[in-house]
Amino acid sequence: MRILVAVKQVAILAEEFALDGADTVPPHALRRRLNELDAHAVEAALTINEGEPGEVVAATVGDEHADDALLSCLAMGADRALRVWGEDLAGADALAVAAVLAALARVERPDLILCGAQSSDSADAATGVALASLLDLPRVAVVTAIERDGDRLVVQRELDGGALEVLRVGTPAVLTVQSGINDPRHATLRAIKQARSKPVSVLAPSELALDAAELEAAAGSRRLRLFELPEGAGATLLEGAPDRVAAQIAEIVREAISA
Amino acid sequence: MSGVLAIAELRRGEDEQLAVRPGTYELIAAGRELAEQGAGPLAVAVIGPAADVPVDSVALDGVSEVIAVPSPEDRYEAHVWQAAAEALIEQRAPAVVLAGHTIDSLGFAAAVAARGRHGFASDVTAVAWTEHGAVAQRSAYGERLVAELDFPGKQTVVLLLRPGANAPAGGRHARANGGSPIATWLELDLAGRSRTERVELREAPIGEVDIAKADFLLSIGRGVGAADQVARMERLADALGATLAVSGPLVEAGWASRARKVGQSGRTVAPRVYLALGISGAAQHLGGMSRSQTIIAVNSDPRARIFDVAHYGAVADLFEVADELERQLG
User: Fold this and answer.
1) Which residues does B185 contact at the CB level (< 8 Å), separation at least 6?
2) Cβ-based contacts of B102 with chain A (< 8 Å)
3) With contact defined as beta carbons under 8 Å apart, do A66 and A97 qualify?
C-alpha cells in the first residue's frame, strides 16, 4: 500500500519561560521533536507494509524546524517525506492543517492515511478525523490495533469504560492511532545517516491551490490570548520530610474514609 | 443562527438498557449557562436506536427541546453520527453545538466542523457567550498554558467539552416539574451512512476488579517508572486497604490491566479517597477522577496538573512517601 503518515513537530515548553508582550511564547523557550503518537503511526505504517510492495510517505505542515521530525520518520524507514509551509500557515489550527493535508492527499492518492490520535502540545485530537471528512474517506479514531484483511482493514478501538470494539473498514481510509498499538523502532546510526539522502519535498500552499483566504475559511478558531494558570490552585500543600508527608496523608485518609 | 444544541452520549449498561452517559449532564449545564448568557434556547439531541432512545432522562429544567433522532444502527457509529449532526445543524442552525471530549465524539465532531466549515475547538475547559459570540478556553503547550479562542465569521461553533470541567446539571426532570419540554422525533435519512462494520465488541474486563466501586483508590502513573514497581504499589494498596488503579500510560506500556485504568477509554471513578502517586494529570486522566471526594496527589514535579484538581498535594519522591506510608499505615 501507499501509506501517507501525517506527522507533527511538537513544541515542548522549557521549564522556565516568560510569555512575551504579544501573549506568545518566545521561540527560544521551545524544544521541538516528532510527536510521540506520530512515531507510533510511522511504526504502524512500516508494519502494515512489511513484506508487501508499498511506500510509506511522511507528510507535515510546518516551518524548517519540522524537517527534524521528517528526518526521524525517514530514519525509522519511511521512503520519502513532504513538508508544506508558507507564512499563511503560521498559527494554523487543526482544521486548517487538515485542509492542507487534504490537498496534499489529493495529489498523493494514498491507499491509507495514518496519524497519531493527538499531538502532545495542542492535543486537539481533531486533525485526522477532519482530514478524513474533507476527503470523504471512512475513518476510525483512536485505534490500538490494525490488521490487513484483503484490501480492507480490521482495526480495534477502545471505548470509554474499557470495552474494545473491533471494526472492519474499507480502504482508502484514515486511522488515528493510540500509543498501545506498537513500540516504535529506534533508528540505527546507519539509518539516520541514510535518512539524509532520502527525498524531502517542500511545497508552498499555492502549489496545492490554497491561498490565504481559503486557509482562513478552513480554520476553526482564532487565538485571542495565551495565559498561565495559577499553579496548584486549590491544593493544600503537605510539607515536610517523607515521614511527615506520609503521616498527614494517613490522617487525611482515616478521616475521609470514616466520615 | 441562534440556540445551543447539546449532543447526548449514550451507552448500553449492564442491564442492556441504553442510558445517557454522565458527561451529558455537564453539557446540559454548560448549555444552560450559554442560554442564560444570550446564546439562545438549549436543545438536546439524543441519537440512538428508535426503540429505546432515553428521551426523558435529558428533559431537565432549562432544556427547551429534546430532539430524538432514530438511528438505523444499534451502536454508536461515527459516520452515522456525523450525518445526524450535519442534518441537525442544517435544520436548526444552532450558534453553538456541544459534545463531550470523549472517544465517541472524537470520531465525528471534527469531521462535522471541517466539512461544514464551522468554528471548532476540542478539549474545551471553559466557554462563555459574549457580544462577539462564543469564546472558549482550552489548554496549550501540553497543559502548561491556557489559550483563549474566538470564532470570527462562524455561524455555528462546534465545541467538545472536557469531561469534569463543568459541574453536571441537576434539577428535577422537567416532566415531573409540570413544564414538559417539547420532545421532537426527527426522522433523518441515515440509512447507508455507516462506513464501518462491527466485527466484535469485547466488554471491559471488569470481572477481576471494579475500581469504580472502591471507596479508596491508590492510583499510580508514569512516575512509578518501571513495571516491577506496579507489583510493589499493589502490595502497598493491600496494606492500606485501598484498590490499585492506574493511569493510561501504564496500561499502554502493558504494565497493568485495562480494568484498572482511570480516564478516557478507562473507568470514571469518584471514590471517597483518591491517592495519586506519580500521576502528572493529563486531561484524559483528570476527566475520569476529578469528582473524587478527597484527592491527594504526590508528585516530584510541582507543575504537575494533578495538583490543579487535588485537595491535598505533596511535592515529594513518591517512593519515599510510599515507604513511609507502608511503615505507618500497614
Assistant:
1) B68, B70
2) 160
3) no
Q: Per-residue confidence at B206, pLDDT binned at 50, 70, 90?
A: low
Q: Which of A122, A178, A242 sits opposite B317 (nearest CB)?
A: A242
DSSP assignment string, B12-35: E-TTS-EEE-THHHHHHHHHHHHI
Choose the weakest-confidence range: B21-30, B39-48, B49-58.
B49-58
Chain A residue numbers with beta carbons less than 8 Å from the beta carbon of B106 are: 117, 125-126, 129, 141-142
Pairing of strands A173-177, A139-149: parallel
Over residues A226-258, the pLDDT tens digits come to: 998 765 457 889 999 999 999 999 999 998 988
Classify the complex by whether its ipTM is higher than 0.90, answering yes or no: yes
Residue that has been written with the C-alpha cell 490543579 in this structure: B308
Q: Name which of A23, A249, A257 to mutate to probe chain B: the one with the most chain B Cβ atoms within 10 A of its Cβ.
A: A249
Please list, residue by residue across A189-206, b when 16 or more beta carbons sit within 10 angstroms of its beta carbon and e when fewer do: eeeeeebeebebeebebe
Partners of residue A142 in chain B, C-beta under 8 Å: 103, 106-107, 265
How many separate helices (H) and strands (E) can be counted in chain B? 9, 17
Q: State the DSSP code for B241.
A: T
> Which of B101, B106, B247, B318 is best to mutate for the A interface (most A CBs within 10 A)?
B106
Distance from CA of B160 to the nearest CA of A (A): 10
Give pTM, 2 decimals.
0.88
Cα separation, B25 vs B5, in Å, equals 13
Q: What is the mean pLDDT of residues B47-73?
A: 89
| Segment among A141-145, A246-250, B43-47, B174-178 with least mean pLDDT | B174-178
Tell if the CB–CB gap between A221 and B119 is shorter than 8 Å: yes
Quote the CA–CA distance of A21 and B218 in Å, as a whole number. 43
List chain A residues with CB under 8 Å of B273. 252-253, 256-257
